[in-house]
Design brief:
This protein is an alpha/beta fold. The protein has eleven helices and twelve strands.
Length: 347
């Protein structure tokens, strides 16, 4: 029977939401949360002997200590495999799952995880784990767990010697593996070139990464004459969130007036963001959207004026495609309003 240790965060460990994000590492017996579905799918093949639960904020803010704790647990339990997540598009959770995979890899223990392809944990830690692609939110749990269970089953059946990503259903790991092909490279390259020239389908053997390149704008020469706008992915909205911007995986952004306001208050504004502790922002929204500082600079003549509208959305789990669309629309609004520069704040 294969022994598995499962790593999950505070939410899926049933400890709470963001208020429990500072939870230190806890070790419990058997499967918890999504681990129960995994255990059921693997019945007779593997057993989840322990579940590690840790708050997302705690892990990422105390990475060295957390990794030491993970290492000690794995050293004590001696599992055959560690499963982490699935993390979907939760950035801190994905980073923690990725780091757990790296720790396991350094100890000679295989790791399997599940993430949305845009999760930073995939890009940074894909070399250390076999990662199943998931949807961007936990709404895809019913598809994610069977896919992870299938990969675990394949790993067991093949005694840890998984095939290619295409064969096994995990995302590319960015690793080069030597193999014998039926045709030599020169012939394969010529065939690809001919197919490309004839407009036929072909598949490269070495896909190159595609990076966005954004040319920087020229500097603002005289700030004392400039109109400055505020844009934020920190989710600051008027009290009550009138446009119902989602706390995660935002599908919209908001445009709101700050005309006549010297600062934001707990009574007037709040954050809709679900990816960080909202208390500090709700108590003083200027901490995320610094209207107070910009008004002071405006009064002192350090800037020409503060634009009377600000733009806001939630960065938590929001897809790159939506973010690009928001950015393009907001930029056009600012350009049409004669804004000289924008200050983009996060969390």
């Amino acid at each position: 029977m294969i022994k598995i240790v499962h790593y999950i965060n505070q939410f899926f460990g049933q400890k709470g939401g963001e208020e429990a994000a500072d939870l230190p590492i806890e070790l419990v017996e058997g499967p918890v949360g999504p681990g129960t579905a995994l255990a059921a799918a693997l019945q007779g093949k593997a057993e989840i002997v322990k579940t590690i639960i840790c708050g997302d904020s705690y892990f990422n803010e105390n990475e060295e200590v957390a990794c030491m704790g993970i290492r000690e647990i794995l050293d004590e339990v001696q599992p055959d495999l560690i499963v982490a997540g699935p993390a979907f598009n939760a950035g801190r959770y994905g980073m923690a799952c990725g780091k757990v995979g790296e720790v396991a890899h350094s100890m000679g223990i295989a790791a399997i995880s599940g993430m949305y392809v845009e999760n930073p944990g995939y890009e940074l830690y894909r070399n250390f784990s076999f990662m199943v692609e998931t949807s961007n939110s936990a709404a895809g749990m019913r598809k994610a767990m069977p896919a992870m269970a299938q990969l675990v089953s394949s790993w067991i059946e093949k005694e840890g010697k998984l095939g290619t990503p295409e064969e096994e259903g995990y995302m590319p790991r960015g690793l080069r593996v030597n193999f014998f092909a039926e045709e030599r490279g020169a012939k394969r390259a010529v065939n690809m070139l001919i197919n490309k020239l004839e407009g036929k389908e072909f598949k490269t053997e070495y896909p190159m990464p595609v990076f966005d390149r954004v040319e920087p704008q020229p500097p603002v020469i005289d700030l004392s004459k400039a109109t400055i706008a505020l844009v934020t992915s920190g989710g600051v909205v008027p009290k009550g969130n009138p446009d119902h911007i989602e706390s995660s995986s935002a599908s919209k952004y908001g445009e709101y007036s700050i005309e006549g306001l010297d600062f934001l208050t707990e009574a007037s504004h709040e954050t809709a963001h679900g990816g960080y502790d909202p208390v500090a922002c709700n108590q003083a929204p200027d901490r995320v959207l610094p209207v107070d500082v910009l008004r002071e600079m405006e009064k002192k003549g350090k800037i020409g004026k503060l634009h009377n509208l600000f733009y806001t959305t939630v960065g938590n789990g929001t897809s790159v495609s939506n973010s690009k669309a928001f950015g393009a629309e907001i930029a056009m609004h600012l350009k049409n309003a004669g804004v000289s520069a924008a200050i983009l704040t996060s969390t």
